[in-house]
Amino acid sequence: MRRLIVISSMLLFCVPVTAFSANCGDLKTQSEMNQCAYREYQQADKELNEVYSTYRLRLNESQRRQIKDVQLAWIKFRDLACDFESSGVKGGSVYPFILQTCLTTMTRARLLQLKFLADCEEGDLSCPAWK
User: Fold this and answer.
1) Measured at the alpha carbon of residue 99, what is the angle toward residues 37 and 29, in degrees to the nearest 5?
2) 82 burial class (0-12, 13-18, 19+ CB within 10 angstroms)?
3) How many CB atoms within 10 Å of residue 33?
4) What is the pLDDT of residues 29-65, one digit of tens each?
5) How far is the C-alpha of 104 from the C-alpha of 20, rounded, in Å?
6) Quick one: 110 exposed, middle or buried, by C-beta within 10 A (0-12, 13-18, 19+)?
């Protein structure tokens, strides 16, 4: 049941770009939208790094190596996926916005995954380390 809730929550992040850009307020130019999207991504990435670093401290040495490998593979996947998803507008003024929005969406989804792992209660056998 808990996994269903987490998966459902992650799907909430799969929203159209126009809905995501609502976080930026009433911006008038593409440049302003691009800058806002970049700031949104930077904030999501900062949160992800904080949760990742804190969670990693609870793991044993072997698990630390594993989570590092997982995280590096996920970063590569995220970057490749967002590069692909934004390829249709590459070279256009909206490209940075589309790319940054994708990066933000995927980073927030990963953040939820890590928070889920970090919040495992003792006895939950599907988690590598309890809180």
Assistant:
1) 45
2) buried
3) 20
4) 999 999 999 999 999 999 999 999 999 999 999 999 9
5) 9
6) buried
Q: Structure tokens of 86?
A: 């934004």
Tokens of residue 119, six digits: 């919040």
pLDDT-derived band at 94 (thresholds 50, 70, 90) equals very high
Its pTM surpasses 0.70 = yes
- Please state, in angstroms and as integers, the Cα–Cα distance from residue 78 to each residue in 42, 81, 100, 126, following that order: 15, 5, 11, 24
Q: How far apart are CA 42 and CA 37, in angstroms?
A: 9
- Measured CA to CA, the distance from residue 75 to residue 47 in angstroms comes to 15
